[in-house]
Amino acid sequence: MKEIINNIFYCGLNHRERKLFDELIPLPRGTTYNSYLIKASEKTVLVDTMYPQKSDEFLEKLEKAGVDKIDYIVCNHGEQDHSGSLPKLVKKYPEAKILTNPKCKELIQEMLHIKDEKFQVIADGEEISLGDKTLKFIFAPWVHWPDTMFTYVKEDNIIFTCDFLGSHSPFETLFAPETPELLLAAKRYYAEIMMPFRNFCKKYVQMLKNMNIDMILTSHGPIYKNPQFILDAYEKWTADACANEVIIPYVSMYESTKEMVDYMSEKLSEKGIEVKPFNVVEEDLGELAMELVEACTVVFGSSMVLAGPHPAAVTSAYITGILRPKVKFVSFIGSYGWGGVLTEKLEQSLSAIKAEKLTNVIIKGKPKTEDFEKLDVLIEEIYQKHKSLGLI
Ligand code: FEO
Known about the structure:
Layout: E1 2-5, E2 8-10, E3 13-15, E4 20-21, E5 25-26, E6 31-33, E7 36-39, E8 44-47, H1 55-64, E9 72-74, H2 80-83, H3 86-92, E10 97-100, H4 102-112, E11 119-121, E12 127-129, E13 134-139, E14 149-153, E15 158-162, H5 180-194, H6 198-211, E16 215-218, H7 227-238, E17 243-251, H8 256-270, E18 274-279, H9 285-291, E19 295-305, E20 308-309, H10 311-323, E21 329-336, H11 344-349, E22 356-357, E23 361-364, H12 369-388
Parallel strand pairs: 8-9, 9-10, 10-11, 15-16, 17-18, 17-19, 19-21, 21-22, 21-23
Antiparallel strand pairs: 1-2, 2-7, 3-6, 4-5, 7-8, 12-13, 13-14, 14-15, 19-20
Helix pairs in contact: 5-7, 5-9, 6-7, 8-12
Bound molecules: MU-OXO-diiron.
């Protein structure tokens, strides 16, 4: 176990071989499940635990490090990648009490069937003395579950934020390198996990900035020794302002829709707008999520399959709808052969997004002169909208 600061140790594990999170989001570099051990003068505390399938490896790691007694196990969040090893832990360390909030206790009991007597429920703002260190619990619901909370160590001025501000990147160095690669991993993670809760994120970023924290220890990815690095990035991602970008997630069966996408990309670029076409069949959805973080406009492109949109286009619209990016304008383009309704299902998937609907351009077959003219109308509309926001 590596010491991070003043008797606080890293005891988490990498899971490089994990390919998907929630059986949905690709993990190009795997992930980590961070757990921390605090050896204070009077109490030993474990902060967050482990993914169920890694439980045995985790317990072995604790044993090898000579951890023979744990007084408290802090559970900042009940999702099983951080709580899944609790049944084995409370068996091995029978004297340990799980310190958590009422909502987290409820969720853990539903998922893991741990008895009441194993818990010590804490209140928001409550402090617990460990001797030479004091833990303070700060409830932070909805980043990203209703049970989420942070644990602050007063004497060291450091905070454990569990999922919040994390990244799915292997734990190669203890402290986060301030590199573009790490920032991208953190942005992707924000997009996939935190973006639907943008306003809550905004609030907690401000809170952490005001606290002048010395170190942020998340439960995925490396530790931020310079919290400003990640807090500034989150400030930008969660801000209401959007970027002069148009994302075009599309699927094209016989190149007609692709021709429309290429035309729009070229013309919008000429007008000074950054365009990112995104083939939803070939590229991973995590990349799409990441592109949606700052974009002002999304144009979905789809071929018709039977009498409706291509299923891959429906998935991309559905993912966009549930991730609730701050996108301000949305439209649909596409091509059909003999008939059908292309936009209805796609529009339904986006019902949770408060974006303004722009003109749709749905054409028959390969685009003709009049079809490109219709696209010109949409292109001009996007240009004027971006201009009205001061982006051009
Ligand atoms: Fe990393 Fe919400 O679990």
